[in-house]
Amino acid sequence: MLNRIVLIGRLTKDPELRYTPNGKAVAGFTLAVDRPFKNQQGEREADFINIVVWGNQAENCANYLAKGKLAAVDGRLQIRSFDGQDGQRRWVTEVVADSVRFLSPRDSSANSADSGIMGKEIDFSDDDIPF
User: Fold this and answer.
1) Extents of the domains making up the chain
2) Do residues 40 and 81 make contact, with C-beta atoms less than 8 angstroms apart?
């Protein structure tokens, strides 16, 4: 059997880092993933998918990801249930990440129009070229 999910989207808020009673790091965040089609009004819609990350990768996500940053998540779909405070059964659907890749440049904001992925322009003259 296969349970594999690959997503690319933007974080809707900063990751929340917690630790289990035995000291294991766990982070959670929501990824907004655009749908590949437009609705009847001609607008794009997005799905908001809960992501859970464990261990060192959870700490890295908390340190280097932030609201609006672009990330790729590779993981598995998990559906779990619990009893709420009102006694009602609640269901949670989330992706447990095996791998998270940071796709936004490290020092740029997600909304910066001039933060090119190719870097910054440098000045040089023809005399600097060795051939």
Assistant:
1) 1-34+44-102
2) no
Query: Which of 57, 46, 56, 37 shows the shortest CA–CA distance to 11?
Result: 46
Place of tokens 């609705």: 39
Question: What are the distances in angstroms from CA 35 to CA 9, 23, 44, 46, 56?
Answer: 10, 37, 7, 5, 30
pLDDT at 99 over 70: yes
Fold classified for 1-34+44-102: OB fold (Dihydrolipoamide Acetyltransferase, E2P) (2.40.50)
Would you list the DSSP string of the chain?
Answer: ----EEEEEEESS--EEEE-TTS-EEEEEEEEEEEEEE-TTS-EEEEEEEEEEEHHHHHHHHHH--TT-EEEEEEEEEEEEEE-TTS-EEEEEEEEEEEEEE-S-TT--TT-TT--TT-------GGG---
This prediction has a pTM of 0.76
